[in-house]
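We were asked to recover a plausible sequence for a given structure. The inputs and outputs are reproduced exactly as logged, with field labels preserved.

PROBLEM: sequence recovery
POSITIONS: 476
GIVEN STRUCTURE:
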């Protein structure tokens, strides 16, 4: 029972029952309302950490099938519909990308790339920050778990660099020397990298799926094209802003390139498996960019990449079976997508969007657009999961905005970017946050204050630069 918080489970059930028995609003079917009760309770349970996300989602499948809200009167069809999310290609895109990410970690290629950038850029603390950030950006297209990227590759290297310059977690008086600056910057850069690619973090393909439900087609390339310029601007600006707001005491880190070179020497020459991993990475990147012209979609590309890694023994089937993060993501991702898609099919999302539209219906789309984005961004304070936030609000706000005349692609992409960068706000706002915060280099007050400041900077960059760039691209 260690994973289960009985009190929070009880709260979740009570909320579900209250919503279930509330009189069904006009223009909403009973099945849609009852599915919403299950969906809302699932999201609440995830936020409260009543049980692991997978457990909450398994319960949701059970209640969805038992109550037959997605297929009234037909038990067989109801369970089939409840399990339909597992057949969605978006689910498998993200799951297989996790398997591919394991190749970067297993072969050591991810570490090698990070050390190469540190060797080139690491002569100053600011250069070190850019080097670690650049490594994250280069790994982001093929490693969709920003927790694996940040926590498994970047964080250990960042921490070892800080300690080597006598900035030690156990000695608070040394934190500002280098460790606290690198901790915050590495986390911010991780979120910027996550926003730039469809495969940058797990919630991005969920946005793609919800947008598709409303007839908005987002491809891997269209996301990358839209995210590249604002992401690049943010990549250069954020370390400079943080350097002014929260400067490290140590400005020069001349020994960092030597340390990186020593690590690379210890790793030895690039192994055969690293070359094969690199080849698979470029094949993946090429097909994600140009595969549309060959009628090869992103999920098919992911299958091709995984097959290459398995056939060349870079990965074994045991590696695939033991990748718990991937299977966990496939489970909860499939269930949340199933419920959100079913709510849309049953008309609930359209009804809810119209309800909000009535409240802000007098606004022009130019005013409604920033209002929706800002509300979505700062509402992340109440979410401990980026995925739960996307599942709860993305589709509804997208529907509202489109109904008010906001260009669909502009809003879909901007809400998608927010799904990464709103993680700067809190120490629980995104997957890698607990890893970086857990280092002990940054106290809670500083984390929240710097997060708010950087969050405002990112909002301005993405809405101004990103909005103009999408206009240039012809997205609206």
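RECOVERED SEQUENCE:
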């Amino acid at each position: 029972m260690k994973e289960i918080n009985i009190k929070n489970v009880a709260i979740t059930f009570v909320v579900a029952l209250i919503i279930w028995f509330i009189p069904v609003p006009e223009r909403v079917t009973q099945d849609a309302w009852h599915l919403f009760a299950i969906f809302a309770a699932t999201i609440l349970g995830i936020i409260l950490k009543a049980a692991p996300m997978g457990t909450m989602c398994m319960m949701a499948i059970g209640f969805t099938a038992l109550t037959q809200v997605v297929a009234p009167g037909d038990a067989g069809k109801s369970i089939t519909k409840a399990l339909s999310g597992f057949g969605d290609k978006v689910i498998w895109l993200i799951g297989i990308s996790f398997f591919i990410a394991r190749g970067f970690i297993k072969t050591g290629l991810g570490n090698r790339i990070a050390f190469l950038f540190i060797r080139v850029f690491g002569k100053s603390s600011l250069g070190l920050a850019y080097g670690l950030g650049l490594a994250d950006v280069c790994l982001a297209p093929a490693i969709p778990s920003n927790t694996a990227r940040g926590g498994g590759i970047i964080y250990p290297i960042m921490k070892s660099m800080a300690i080597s310059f006598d900035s030690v977690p156990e000695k608070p008086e040394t934190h500002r020397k280098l460790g606290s600056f690198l901790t915050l910057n590495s986390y911010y850069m991780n979120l910027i990298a996550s926003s730039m690619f469809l495969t940058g973090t797990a919630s991005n393909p969920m946005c793609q799926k919800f947008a598709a439900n409303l007839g908005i087609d987002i491809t891997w390339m269209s996301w990358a094209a839209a995210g590249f310029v604002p992401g690049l601007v943010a990549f250069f600006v954020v370390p400079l802003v943080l350097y002014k707001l929260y400067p490290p005491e140590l400005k020069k880190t001349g020994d960092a390139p030597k340390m990186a070179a020593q690590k690379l020497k210890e790793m030895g020459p690039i192994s055969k498996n690293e070359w094969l991993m690199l080849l698979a990475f470029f094949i993946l990147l090429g097909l994600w960019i140009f595969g549309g012209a060959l009628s090869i979609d992103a999920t098919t590309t992911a299958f091709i990449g995984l097959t290459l890694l398995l056939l060349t023994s870079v990965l074994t089937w045991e590696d695939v079976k033991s990748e718990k993060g991937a299977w966990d993501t496939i489970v909860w991702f499939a269930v949340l997508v199933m419920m959100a898609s079913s709510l849309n099919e049953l008309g609930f999302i359209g009804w809810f969007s119209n309800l909000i539209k009535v409240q802000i219906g007098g606004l022009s789309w130019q005013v409604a657009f920033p209002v929706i984005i800002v509300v979505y961004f700062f509402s992340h304070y109440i979410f401990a999961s980026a995925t739960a936030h996307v599942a709860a609000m993305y589709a509804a706000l997208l529907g509202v905005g489109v109904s008010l005349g906001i260009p669909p692609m502009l809003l879909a992409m901007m809400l998608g970017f927010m799904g990464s960068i709103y993680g700067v706000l809190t120490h629980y706002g995104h997957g890698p946050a607990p890893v970086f915060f857990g280092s002990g280099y940054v106290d809670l007050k500083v984390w929240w204050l710097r997060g708010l400041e950087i969050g405002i900077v990112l909002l301005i960059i993405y809405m101004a630069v990103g909005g103009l760039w999408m206009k240039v691209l012809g997205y609206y």
